[in-house]
Design a protein that fits this description.
Layout (H helix, E strand, L loop, with lengths): L19 E4 L8 E5 L8 H6 L4 H4 L7 H4 L10 E4 L33 H4 L22 H30 L2 E9 L12 E4 L8 H13 L4 E3 L7 H6 L6 E9 L4 E2 L4 E2 L3 H16 L8
Parallel strand pairs: 2-3, 2-4, 4-7, 5-6
Antiparallel strand pairs: 1-3, 5-7, 8-9
Length: 294
């Protein structure tokens, strides 16, 4: 069963033919696509049973409601891909096999990446902890459980994303992927926190002009915008962002205090204003001449 947290919670996974939702526009007008990999909130029953945390604590790793913030993309002529499953269950912004050996009841295959900084932090493909640092599970997992999640959730999501990128590039000659996330207030920036952080892997994943265009649009609305600090882009940005091959990837992090109660995982009334501004941003991207990306 689903985690019974909000009246508009996503439907149970067993009723979904795919572990993601792809919303297509009537006509794909510009070479831009949006993705929300961490806003899924359908929690499988066996995962809930294995977890030691209460329902709200399990949701601390969600990029809550980000799919809604960027929900205007299809109406403006750009597809939106969103994971239905939660990040804490399987993180598609990681390599497919970043696993912490301490989480498992037996040895892992030698080809598994057990030494990445993300694994060390407990935030691999299958997370050991939630964003607040609390351990997720009450027991050790089997490798078969991790393999099942990766094959049933990670791989289909990335197959859909890769196909969407290839389709866009074939139609327009180029593609800009905007990977949408949310962020808590970073302790080191508490005195002057950014509203948005744009991550382009320090200029290697996206044409600087595209990053600047988004930066100027948000700053023009009065938001504080930073680049690559403290989020330069995760696996998705670095893996798919290949400007020399005509594929650009830009990660957008939205400050959670702008729109949600982080403790209760609930929308705040001011979310509507932020959503309206993001819709303005998206509308501006829909009228941009993107030939400079080719």
């Amino acid at each position: 069963m689903d985690l019974p947290l909000t009246p508009d919670a996503a439907p149970p996974l067993q009723h979904e033919p795919r572990p993601y939702c792809l919303l297509r526009p009537e006509a794909h007008r510009v070479p831009v696509i949006f993705a929300s990999p961490h806003s899924g909130r359908a929690y499988p029953a066996d995962f809930i049973a294995a977890a030691r945390l209460d329902p709200v604590a399990l949701r601390k790793s969600e990029d809550g409601f980000v799919d809604e913030l960027f929900g205007a993309a299809p109406a403006e002529g750009m597809p939106l891909l969103a994971a239905i499953f939660p990040r804490v269950f399987c993180d598609v912004n990681r390599e497919p096999w970043e696993l912490d050996p301490g989480m498992f009841d037996g040895p892992l295959p030698p080809w598994v990446n057990t030494a990445s900084p993300r694994v060390g932090a407990g935030l691999g493909t299958i997370a050991r902890v939630v964003a607040t640092g609390e351990a997720v599970y009450r027991r050790k997992l089997s490798f078969a459980e991790a393999e099942d999640r990766i094959r049933r959730f990670w791989q289909p999501y990335h197959a859909a994303l890769a196909a969407l990128i290839a389709e866009t590039r074939a139609e327009f000659g180029t593609c800009l992927l905007i990977d949408c996330h949310s962020m808590p207030t970073h302790p080191a920036q508490a005195a002057n926190p950014p509203d948005f952080v744009l991550g382009d892997a320090h200029g290697t994943a996206c044409a600087p002009r595209a990053t600047r265009l988004v930066e100027e649009a948000l700053a023009g609305m009065g938001y504080r915008v930073r680049r690559n600090d403290p989020y330069a882009g995760g696996y998705v940005t670095r893996h798919y962002g290949r400007p020399r091959e005509g594929v650009h990837a830009l990660q957008i992090e939205v400050a959670r205090p702008l729109y949600m109660d982080e403790a209760r995982i609930e929308r705040l009334p001011r979310m509507a204003g932020l959503q309206a501004d993001i819709t303005r941003l998206i509308a501006g991207l829909a009228t941009t001449d993107w030939r400079f990306l080719s």
